[in-house]
């Protein structure tokens, strides 16, 4: 099995993030709190509850080197949490939004973070030493709808966004005084803050879940029309590929290697996509058994299951446990498990069923050629 | 500026109409030779017409409709139809269902069932999510298409 561990933490999880050493996991149980659990003798125990937001927490990111947590919420604010002694101390970041914040991500150097919002804007936040204050700088124009996902290029300057206007865009986030001129290599050095590098117009419907490959050469994002899009050579003339698949749409993606992507979404089971020697992407397979949902009887059971969930019937809970290490509902979040800042073949997923499942692709023989 | 654009669009529409007329003749002759699958392939070729012009869309729909209604062996048709046409066919099936015409709906549902088994739910989602080439959303999407 590709799934190596699974635990049901809550009724529903909006997003999750791991501590640098993976001993702790932070997630939002679909309310205004962030819960931090840690593994004690094979059992998950609640360690901290971060309470400061007023509404659902839509994004969490835990920085690997500086050990800080950033959260974004529908209450239009962000908090940066620092561990002081045994307490997580919040610092309010005023994003200056008039709509919900939807996603958040630390930059690779951890000196900036990006927040996507329902106000058709992206906030780039950075720390101002003299004021002891996180400043939010907005990319206001360009987006025609909510920003559903943000992803940092490894060079710490370029930021990719997806939006419900169906487009994927790449911006420069160069901030004077934060980003040193010499650290920006090549083309991205001359770009001003908020400058649009490229706009990809591949999806005819909402776009979600954008990610860069490890080298930053390839970009992948998904649309709500059961398609996944890949773009190489991000710049004036990107090379784009669309891959259609026969199942329900994806919500988020993750590069495992330069030639392999895992997508998660409404089909409740991760899908593997890979590029062949010529660089042509295609669907490879599901990770694990797919639920059989084609016969009439199983539609019936899905219905009763849905009702069971609605009325909190316990016997269905037992049913779910028997299914083991798979999600029972839409997967909304996929997070890489990095070791010492480098990528591995492991990742974790969370979704509307409240489970966090850890996956390892190390022993998947048929996929090893793409790793 | 906008006027010039409209002019180009009109010219384009004329060309498309001519092409569709040509297609109609070809399909009629294929149907006479009892080659309904070939007829459907011909009808779907060059679809969607990639235009906002309702006249073109309707004209193309009439051709595709003619070919769809001539299909008797659905399984045989689907196995000889190239999968790249599945998405387009699905869009026309929904257009057929939206007419409310009894024989058309019967035929479209019959094909829809078999097509879904082959092409999966993704095919339906792509059809529902396509706001450019389907009839429903022309109003709201006219602006969007204009910028392409």
Automatic annotation (TrEMBL), chain A:
InterPro entries: ARPC1, WD40/YVTN_repeat-like_dom_sf, WD40_repeat_CS, WD40_repeat_dom_sf, WD40_rpt. Keywords: Actin-binding, Cytoplasm, Cytoskeleton, Repeat, WD repeat. The keyword Chloroplast does not apply. Pfam families: WD40 (PF00400). GO terms for biological process: Arp2/3 complex-mediated actin nucleation. GO terms for cellular component: Arp2/3 protein complex. One of its GO terms (molecular function) is actin filament binding. Coiled coil: none annotated. It is found in: Cytoplasm, Cytoskeleton. It comes from the Eukaryota. PROSITE patterns: WD_REPEATS_1, WD_REPEATS_2, WD_REPEATS_REGION. WD repeats lie at residues 50-91, 140-172. Functions as component of the Arp2/3 complex which is involved in regulation of actin polymerization and together with an activating nucleation-promoting factor (NPF) mediates the formation of branched actin networks. Belongs to the WD repeat ARPC1 family. Component of the Arp2/3 complex composed of ARP2, ARP3, ARPC1/p41-ARC, ARPC2/p34-ARC, ARPC3/p21-ARC, ARPC4/p20-ARC and ARPC5/p16-ARC. This is Actin-related protein 2/3 complex subunit.
Automatic annotation (TrEMBL), chain B:
The keyword Cytoplasm applies. One of its GO terms (biological process) is Arp2/3 complex-mediated actin nucleation. Keywords: Cell projection, Cytoplasm, Cytoskeleton. It comes from the Eukaryota. It is found in: Cell projection; Cytoplasm, Cytoskeleton. Coiled coil: none annotated. Transmembrane segments: none annotated. One of its GO terms (cellular component) is Arp2/3 protein complex. InterPro entries: ARPC5, ARPC5_sf. Gene3D superfamilies: Actin-related protein 2/3 complex subunit 5 (1.25.40.190). The keyword Cytoplasm applies. Its main location: other. Pfam families: P16-Arc. Belongs to the ARPC5 family. Functions as a component of the Arp2/3 complex which is involved in regulation of actin polymerization and together with an activating nucleation-promoting factor (NPF) mediates the formation of branched actin networks. Arp2/3 complex plays a critical role in the control of cell morphogenesis via the modulation of cell polarity development. Functions as component of the Arp2/3 complex which is involved in regulation of actin polymerization and together with an activating nucleation-promoting factor (NPF) mediates the formation of branched actin networks. Arp2/3 complex plays a critical role in the control of cell morphogenesis via the modulation of cell polarity development. Component of the Arp2/3 complex composed of ARP2, ARP3, ARPC1/p41-ARC, ARPC2/p34-ARC, ARPC3/p21-ARC, ARPC4/p20-ARC and ARPC5/p16-ARC. This is Actin-related protein 2/3 complex subunit 5. It comes from Quillaja saponaria. The lineage of its organism: Eukaryota, Viridiplantae, Streptophyta, Embryophyta, Tracheophyta.
